[in-house]
Amino acid sequence: MTSDLIYLCTAVFNLNTKGSLDGAVRGWRHLHVGNRTSDRAQMLTAAEAAGALGVKLGTLYAYVSRGWLKSYRRRIGRQALYRRADIEALRGVVTPERGRRGRSLPDASSWVTVAQPKSAETATSGVIVAESGVSSIIDGRLAYRGYPIEEVVEHASFEEVCLLLWNGERPSADEIAALRAEIRDARMPPQVASALSAVGEDAPPLLRLAAVMPALAAWDSRQAPRSPIDRAKLVISHLPLALARQRQYGVRPDHGGMAERLLESVAGTSAAEWEVIAMDRVLVACAEHELNASTFAARVVASTGADLFASVLSALCSLSGPIHGGACDRIEELFARIVAGARIGDCLDAITRENRLPPGFGHAIYPNGDPRAVLLRKHAETIARRKGRKLLDIALRIEEAVWKRERLRPNLDFYLTVSARMLGFPRGIPAAVFAVGRSAGWIAHVLEQYADNRLIRPRMRYRGSPLRHWNSWGD
Q1: Which residue among 238, 289, 363, 445 is the active-site one?
Q2: Cβ neighbours around 329 below 10 Å, total
Q3: Is the pLDDT of residue 329 over 50?
Q4: How many other CB atoms are there within 10 angstroms of residue 366's CB atom?
Q5: Burial class (CB in 10 A: 0-12, 13-18, 19+), 152
Q6: Is the pLDDT of residue 369 over 80?
Q7: Confidence class of residue 283 from pLDDT cuts 50, 70 and 90?
Q8: H or E, element range at 337
Q9: 116 neighbors 80 (Cβ within 8 angstroms)
Q10: Residue 363 known to be catalytic
Q11: What mean pLDDT comes out for the span 325-344?
Q12: Which of 131, 91, 127 is nearest to 110 (CA)?
């Protein structure tokens, strides 16, 4: 085995001769043709292979996707296996203790792969681009920092979830109270209020949220330096002010906290205790969801060294696209048509003719249904008992009709929109409520990126014309 390993590693690092790596691999495999039976017995699981290489599972899977390592399937079951001999050969190239973990095989946390092909050898339909400890989606179950979403939505306030996501552990009562007080007492600086006024009261809510970020960044640059967590508190406490009704930028709710602030200054309700609880659950359900488009945008910008304001702004800008951030508005449009007298079947027929999915239905990550939608549907029932069932009954009829026609379940956007409208928020605001809630996760990912930063530099697979020469044109 030692001589084989030396043979392969020598060829790997001597690539001046074309095809030397392929030749090395073929030659090395040829040495083992006569011993296939024993070779098949020397198989490792993914965890064992990663341990032998001294890398994380994400890095191991990335080696496979790039063709540097081959995985094998069991005849029974789906678990991928790896040849011990292949791992030992690769180990000579990548292990840190041999001083060769270098430019040719970087750690997976620094990679961004675009258009990675799907294959039977990958265990996921997505593209692994980084490692994170903020949240996880495993077998259709979402967890924040290891806590199941069902438990977090039921028991945690939005402020508690913010601090959990930012710091990694559950905060103390004093820490929660301090963040709640900062949100309660936030007053928009005159310079920021002027910038927001220039955007206009009639501007879309998401645009108003985005407009606050550069103005707040300019104002903060002239203040005493803040810690990353203090800057996170500054950002999140000013988001609801951008949505407040005219001349209410400095309104202070009696109790404090994000739920109260939104209910009183945006929805214009009394923020009764039951409303605050319902609003908290909506915000918590929105707070984090691994690496979707807006979160990825925030991490890419943060990886350049840009500040928190720019990173959150990039996430907000990504929501302006209808594919990612426009679902709530389309759901509201669907409800408005039905309230005005349109039949649900006719509405769905029109959507089908446009080759679109019903708004708020289907999720690539959750083929069997979005657990967040299940939670918010249950809490929408609670809201309906106090606010009336008209909107919820329409939602249930739509859900039933879509299931019969498309076999699709609702996602977070659907019952977020229903809950927000029943709580008194005007049309157009549910999408902004989502953004305020998700800002907790955006900030958590930005802080995580700062903590162990590597520039995220994507690559693309070229599919254009083959190599050609300019001076040959017209010949």
Answers
A1: 363
A2: 20
A3: yes
A4: 19
A5: buried
A6: yes
A7: very high
A8: helix 327-339
A9: no
A10: yes
A11: 95
A12: 131
- pLDDT at residue 385 is higher than 80: yes
User: Is residue 145 a contact partner of residue 165, using CB atoms and an 8 Å limit?
Assistant: yes
pLDDT of amino acid 468:
86
The one catalytic residue among 22, 230, 324, 393: 324
Phi, psi of 305 (to 5 degrees): 95, 5
Give the angle 77-78-80 at the CA atoms, nearest 5°.
120
pLDDT interval class at 415 (50, 70, 90): very high
Phi-psi sector, 67: left (phi>0), alpha (psi -120 to 50), beta? left
Q: In 42-183, which ranges are E strands?
A: 43-45, 72-73, 80-83, 135-138, 141-144, 147-148
Helix axes 412-422, 371-387, angle to 10 degrees: 20
Q: Which of 289, 329, 413, 445 is catalytic?
A: 413
C-alpha to C-alpha distance for 363 and 365, rounded to whole angstroms: 5
Query: What is the distance in angstroms between the CA of the first residue and the CA of the last residue of the chain?
Result: 56
- Residue 100, exposed/middle/buried by CB under 10 A (0-12, 13-18, 19+)? middle
Report the candidate in 341, 337, 364, 367 with the shortest Cα–Cα distance to residue 350.
Answer: 337
User: What are the tokens at 130?
Assistant: 């980084």
Cβ atoms < 10 Å from Cβ of 255: 15
Q: Between vectors from CA 121 to CA 118 and to CA 127, what angle results, nearest 5°?
A: 45
Domains and CATH numbers, the chain: 2-106 (1.10.1660.10), 132-462 (1.10.580.10)
* DSSP 3-state percent helix, strand, coil across the chain (nearest 5): 60, 5, 35
Q: Is 413 a catalytic residue?
A: yes
State phi, psi for 53 to the nearest 5 degrees. Answer: -85, -15
Write down how long the chain is: 475
Per the annotation, the verdict on 469 as an active-site residue is no
